[in-house]
C-alpha cells in the first residue's frame, strides 16, 4: 500500500495508511530539474493517498486528526473511501447556472502578444472612425463605407448551436496571411487550423475578418509589420497635444463626469481618448487609485469594458447542464482533434501549461464555480430535501462524509452556528470543463477544505505545505511573475494566477501533484497553497471547515489578515458563534468559565458530547439548544 522513491525526505506514513507513487525529491535544492524532459507526473512528486478502513471512515474528524501530521507536510492529500461507498449524485438535471469566463492566456502574463495586438487594433479602428468623420465634414468621403460605429471585442464564433467563444483576432490575422494564395483564402482550412470545427465557423471567420481586419491588413501591407507599434506612439503624441490645447483654451471648464454629472474635482476628471467624455476616477467601478500613464491612451468603460479594473475573470454565459456538457465536449474535441483519439491526462496537462505559460493564443474557458447548493442542488442527498428522506438514500443521507452535514458534525466548531455560510456550512457546487482553473490560493482563515468529485473527467491538483512551505511558494511565485506582484501586492487573494509547478520547483518551492478521480476526496490543509484544473466535463462539491484549535483569536492570523486590509473571517466566525452561544464578543471563554445551558466535553463550551455519527439528531440537538434568533445567510467567496 505504500510506495515511494529514493530521495523523498520526511516520514511518509504508517503501514497501510497511505499509498501513491512519489517521484522526484521533496526538499533540498530543486534547481537540478532545469529543462528535465518528461511529463509532469514524472517530475512533480505525488501527493499522499490515504485509504481509511470502514471503521475509520465512520468518524471523519477523528480520521483527519489521525492523518494530519503525515499529510499536512504535503499541503494536500487524497482520501479514497472504502470499497462499496458509492453515493448517488442527485444534482438537479434541469438546473441553469451562470458561468465565470476565464482568460486562460492571462493566468501568468497579463499582457501577452495577442492582447497587445488587440489593443493596437482598437486604436486603429478608433482612428478610422475619427478620420471618416473628418472626411464627412470636409465632404471628401467619396461614397466610402462608414466604419462600424462600435465593434465588440472579441467577436463571437460558434462552438455549439447555442453557445460560442471569443475569436482570437491575432491568430486569425496571422492565419489568413499564411494561407492566402493569390488573394484567395481557404476559410475551411483557416477554421481547422484555429481548432474551430462548427459548420458555421468558416463563414463566421470570413465575416469577422472583413469587418475587423481587412482594412488593417491593407495598412500593414502598405506600411509594414511595425505599423501598429509606430501608429500607437503617433496616436499617443497626437492625443497629448490635443489635451494640452484643450487645457490652454480652458475648454474643460464645462466638462462633467459622465456618471455623476458633476464638474467638481477636475483634478480627478479623466477624458476618454475615444469618445471624449469625462469620468471621475472615483466614479469608476472599482475606483481608480492612480492616474493612467501619460504615454498611454485611456478609454472609458463605455469604450473599453475593462477600463479601470484590475485583472479578474469576467461573467460568462448562462448554461443548462446539458448545454454545458455539449459545450465542454466540443471544446475538448476541438483542442485534440488532430489526435484522432481521446487525449491522455498527460497530454491535456502539457497543453494546459503551454497555453497559460506561452500565451500565444487567446483562450476563453467558462467555469461553473461557487454555485450555491441551496439554489442548484447538492450532489449528495440533502437532509433539508424531503424527497431525499428515507428509502434508498437513507445510508448516504446520514453518512458523516455527506458534505451537507459534514460541517455540523459534533466535534466541529461549526455545529454551533445558527447561520448559513456559503462554502462553509452550505457546500459549493462546481461544474468544470477542460482547462477550467481553480488558481493558486489558500483557504480563508487557515481552514481546511474537503472536495469531493461526483462524476466526469479527473481534476489535476497541485499543492504545497503551509508554514515555511507557503513562504517558499510565495517567494517562487513572486520570482516567476515579478511585474504582477509589483503592480498588485495582494495578488494571492485574487485567485487569478497560475505558474507551472516545474517552474515553481526550479525556484525553490516544494510542490506535489494529485489526480482526483470520481468518488475520491481531496483535502487541503491550513495555509497550504493549492490550485489546479479540470481535464474535461465534471462535477465536484466542496466545503471548508476549521479545526478545533484554528478558529480562535489567533494573533498571527489577525496580523496577516490586517496587512492585506481584508475582513478577518475568524472574527466573523467568532461573531456568529457569540450570537449562537451568548459568549462575550471581546474574546472566547476559557474552559474555566463555563456557560449555563451548554453541553460540555472536558470542560470546553465549544464542543457537544459526541454521539453516533449516524444518529440523525446528533448534529441537530446542539444547534436547537443553542439557537437564539432567526437564521440569515452570510456569504464568503469560495476558494476551490
Textual characterization of the structure:
The structure is a single chain. This protein is α+β, with helices and mostly antiparallel strands. Helices cover 31% and strands 16% of the residues. The chain is built from 17 helices and 22 strands. It starts with 17 loop residues before the first strand and ends in a 5-residue tail after the last strand.
Q: Rg from C-alpha positions?
A: 28 Å
What coarse outline follows from CA principal-axis ratios? globular
The counted number of beta strands is 22
- Low-confidence parts, pLDDT < 50 over ≥5 residues? 1-38, 305-310, 549-570, 580-638
Give the overall pLDDT as a whole number: 74
- Count of helix runs: 17
Strand order of the largest sheet: 1-2-3-19-16-21-14-12-4-11
Beginning-to-end CA distance, first to last residue: 29 Å
SSE class: alpha+beta
| Share of residues in strands | 15-25%
Helicity level: 25-40%
Largest β-sheet summary: 10 strands, mixed
Structure summarized in a few sentences:
This protein has 640 residues and is an alpha+beta fold. Helix content is 31%, strand content 16%.
Task: Please specify the SSE layout and strand pairing.
Elements (H helix, E strand, L loop, with lengths): L17 E2 L20 H4 L5 E2 L9 H12 L4 E4 L16 E8 L9 H26 L17 E3 L5 E3 L2 H11 E2 L2 E2 L1 H7 L7 H23 L3 H22 L20 E3 L6 E3 L33 E7 H15 L9 H14 L5 E9 H4 L17 H4 L22 E3 L5 E5 L4 E5 L6 E9 L2 E5 L4 H13 L1 H6 L13 H6 L5 E5 L4 E4 L5 E5 L3 E8 L9 H9 L5 H13 L36 H9 L6 E3 L5
Amino acid at each position: 500500500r505504500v510506495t515511494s522513491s529514493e530521495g523523498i525526505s520526511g516520514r511518509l506514513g504508517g503501514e497501510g495508511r497511505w499509498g501513491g507513487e512519489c517521484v522526484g525529491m521533496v526538499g533540498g535544492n530543486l534547481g537540478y530539474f532545469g529543462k528535465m524532459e518528461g511529463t509532469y507526473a514524472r517530475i512533480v512528486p505525488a501527493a499522499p493517498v490515504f485509504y481509511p478502513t470502514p471503521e475509520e471512515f465512520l468518524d471523519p474528524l477523528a480520521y483527519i486528526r489521525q492523518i494530519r501530521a503525515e499529510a499536512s507536510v504535503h499541503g494536500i492529500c487524497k482520501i479514497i473511501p472504502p470499497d462499496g461507498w458509492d453515493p448517488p449524485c442527485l444534482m438537479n438535471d434541469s438546473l441553469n447556472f451562470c458561468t465565470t469566463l476565464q482568460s486562460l492566456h492571462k493566468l501568468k502574463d497579463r499582457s501577452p502578444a495577442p492582447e497587445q495586438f488587440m489593443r493596437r487594433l482598437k486604436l486603429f479602428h478608433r482612428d478610422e472612425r475619427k478620420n471618416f468623420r473628418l472626411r464627412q465634414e470636409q465632404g471628401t468621403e467619396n461614397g466610402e463605407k462608414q466604419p462600424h460605429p462600435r465593434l465588440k471585442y472579441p467577436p463571437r464564433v460558434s462552438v455549439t448551436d447555442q453557445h460560442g467563444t471569443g475569436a482570437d483576432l491575432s491568430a486569425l490575422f496571422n492565419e489568413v496571411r499564411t494561407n492566402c494564395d493569390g488573394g484567395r483564402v481557404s476559410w475551411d482550412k483557416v477554421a481547422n487550423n484555429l481548432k474551430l470545427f462548427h459548420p458555421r465557423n468558416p463563414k463566421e471567420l470570413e465575416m469577422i475578418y472583413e469587418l475587423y481586419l481587412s482594412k488593417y491588413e491593407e495598412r500593414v501591407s502598405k506600411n509594414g509589420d511595425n505599423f501598429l507599434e509606430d501608429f500607437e506612439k503617433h496616436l499617443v503624441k497626437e492625443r497629448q497635444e490635443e489635451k494640452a490645447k484643450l487645457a490652454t483654451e480652458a475648454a474643460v471648464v464645462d466638462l462633467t463626469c459622465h456618471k455623476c454629472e458633476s464638474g467638481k474635482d477636475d483634478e480627478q476628471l479623466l477624458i476618454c481618448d475615444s469618445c471624449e467624455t469625462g469620468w471621475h476616477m472615483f466614479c469608476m467601478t472599482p475606483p481608480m487609485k492612480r492616474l493612467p500613464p501619460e504615454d498611454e491612451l485611456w478609454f472609458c468603460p463605455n469604450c473599453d469594458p475593462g477600463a479601470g479594473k484590475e485583472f479578474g475573470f469576467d461573467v460568462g454565459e448562462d448554461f443548462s447542464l446539458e448545454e454545458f456538457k455539449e459545450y465542454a465536449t466540443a471544446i475538448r474535441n476541438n483542442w485534440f482533434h488532430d489526435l484522432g483519439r481521446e487525449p491522455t491526462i498527460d497530454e491535456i496537462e502539457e497543453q494546459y501549461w503551454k497555453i497559460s505559460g506561452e500565451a500565444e493564443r487567446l483562450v476563453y474557458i467558462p467555469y461553473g464555480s461557487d454555485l450555491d447548493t441551496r439554489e442548484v442542488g447538492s450532489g449528495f442527498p440533502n437532509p433539508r430535501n424531503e424527497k431525499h428522506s428515507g428509502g434508498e438514500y437513507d445510508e448516504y443521507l446520514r453518512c458523516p462524509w455527506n458534505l451537507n452535514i459534514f460541517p455540523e458534525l459534533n466535534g466541529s466548531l461549526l455545529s454551533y452556528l445558527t447561520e448559513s455560510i456559503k462554502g462553509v456550512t452550505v457546500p459549493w457546487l462546481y461544474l468544470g470543463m477542460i482547462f477550467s482553473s481553480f488558481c493558486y490560493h489558500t483557504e480563508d482563515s487557515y481552514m481546511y477544505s474537503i472536495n469531493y468529485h461526483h462524476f466526469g473527467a479527473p481534476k489535476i491538483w497541485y499543492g504545497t505545505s503551509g508554514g515555511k512551505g507557503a513562504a517558499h511558494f510565495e517567494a517562487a511565485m513572486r520570482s516567476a511573475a515579478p511585474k504582477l506582484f509589483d503592480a498588485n501586492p495582494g495578488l494571492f487573494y485574487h485567485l487569478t494566477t497560475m505558474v507551472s509547478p516545474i517552474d515553481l520547483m526550479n525556484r525553490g518551492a516544494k510542490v506535489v501533484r494529485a489526480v482526483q478521480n470520481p468518488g475520491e476526496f481531496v483535502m487541503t490543509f491550513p495555509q497550504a497553497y493549492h490550485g489546479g484544473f479540470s481535464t474535461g466535463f465534471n462535477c465536484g462539491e466542496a466545503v471548508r471547515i476549521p479545526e478545533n484549535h484554528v478558529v480562535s483569536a489567533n494573533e498571527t492570523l489577525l496580523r496577516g489578515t490586517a496587512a492585506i486590509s481584508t475582513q478577518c473571517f475568524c472574527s466573523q466566525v467568532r461573531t456568529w458563534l457569540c450570537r449562537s452561544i451568548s459568549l462575550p464578543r471581546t474574546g472566547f471563554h476559557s474552559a474555566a468559565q463555563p456557560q449555563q445551558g451548554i453541553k460540555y466535553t472536558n470542560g470546553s463550551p465549544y464542543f457537544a458530547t459526541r454521539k453516533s455519527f449516524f444518529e440523525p439528531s446528533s448534529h441537530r440537538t446542539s444547534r436547537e439548544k443553542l439557537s437564539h434568533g432567526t437564521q440569515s445567510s452570510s456569504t464568503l467567496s469560495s476558494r476551490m
